[in-house]
Amino acid sequence: MLTVHLHQLIFHGFHGLYPGEEKIGNDFEVNLDITYNVKKKKLDNLKNLISYEDVFQILNHRMQVSTPLLEELADSIIRKISHQYPQVEQVRISIYKLQAPIENFRGKVGITLTRNFNS
Predict the structure, then answer these.
(1) Which of 47, 78, 92, 119 is the most exposed, fewest CB within 10 Å of its CB?
(2) Fold classification of 2-116 (topology level)
């Protein structure tokens, strides 16, 4: 098993249910782990592996599409990754809203979604 990690990625997006979030936007932190089974014994060729650059492009593209719920956003990212990479065993994604529109709140809020797949 091999796990690809993309952590502490920051995106500006327009996700949320509160009035104005779809116009003002917010900064989001994304942490993503993709675990998969490598079919080849030698790990010397990218064509046999999952490219974190390609995965970043999936994230970057999807984070630009306004979505009311972080859960829906996370699920759509996982579905895209599992569709593009059928060898995936597990995807775990955390998405944090860095400036939550909650009065007197300091910190970040977010969700983590994990999906397991049979290869």
Answers:
(1) 47
(2) GTP Cyclohydrolase I, domain 2 (3.30.1130)
